[in-house]
């Protein structure tokens, strides 16, 4: 294995793999990730169509991966109130198992992969030194794409990692009959659950919950039975849905604290730069889009058109311009959804002004990404 690369990418999730496919068209790229492919990942698995053209330009045809085309949104809480809306751009239902594998297969045509974990990164004059569990490597540019939370964040002493986060998430695939063309969001005490179909006809249930709501119950089954079923739609779901796996995937300590796309001289993409609240269903598109923005400026830097400092400033500015307002709306929406009085009030408004719902959804999504 080479020890010296143009670009080393820490993390081979959606953001890291997209940047690898983009940059390996011109440069020698290495992706470092401790996991093998394919793998299931925490995610609602609703992918906004805003990424379609850009991914096509990289040789990834998402419509070939899944026929589940989603154009409608349904929101429920408690036993009554149901709101539906048409999604402005729509999306597809595709498992991370299939999507990440497709990107990995494309990336590995031109990119090297190392099954390892990045433990430290330092900048020494003109190159970065990347330390993994077993190796010491160098690169002209490093991109950090290690996702929501990583030991690397601790090593780099990033401010968000110092604060405890109360959020945990649960995901499970089920056999359940539901319409192809809808993504559903069901609110319950302390959290909300997304339901939508994936490419093989199974249904993904993925929920986010505050630890305070969860901790009085012994386990996930008890929590599902006691709390999720207080939502009528989820009660109907659990009556007939058949779980596919023996146990669900869970993660804790999900942080929605503000992060920075550039810290020190380190460039971050995907969830490493900022995580939008999952109810917006836009995190995957943002991860892919941030990889495109970073790849554009890293290319200019590696081709000596701009300096490293200029590249970092341009990326940071462009990232903020593209994502800041989406993140803000996401934060605001999550607050409303989890606040009983505010949810009741917003329902009252939406009942009378239903055209507002698609407008709110639009605020948390972007336009189609141009290749
Ligand atoms: C509950 C929940 C539901 C969601 N639902 C949706 C949805 O329906 N639609 C949507 O668009 N988005 C959704 N999202 C958001 C979406 O899942 C993320 O935004 C997306 O996965 C971000 O991709 P990423 O590449 O940044 O991170 P990831 O896909 O998490 O990849 C990070 C990679 O880094 C690797 N890594 C970690 N540490 C290291 C290290 N030290 N060295 C090397 N590699 C490392 C990991 O192994 C991993 O492969 C949801 C999120 C949550 C929490």
UniProtKB/TrEMBL annotation:
GO terms of molecular function: flavin adenine dinucleotide binding; squalene monooxygenase activity
Sequence ranges assigned to domain FAD/NAD(P)-binding in this UniProt record: 5-150
SUPFAM superfamilies registered for this protein in UniProt: FAD/NAD(P)-binding domain
Residue ranges annotated for the Squalene epoxidase domain, each copy included: 257-317
Pfam families registered for this protein in UniProt: Pyr_redox_2, SE
Gene Ontology CC terms, in alphabetical order: membrane
Name listed for the protein in its UniProt record: FAD-dependent oxidoreductase
Organism: Nonlabens ulvanivorans
Taxonomic placement: Bacteria, Pseudomonadati, Bacteroidota, Flavobacteriia, Flavobacteriales
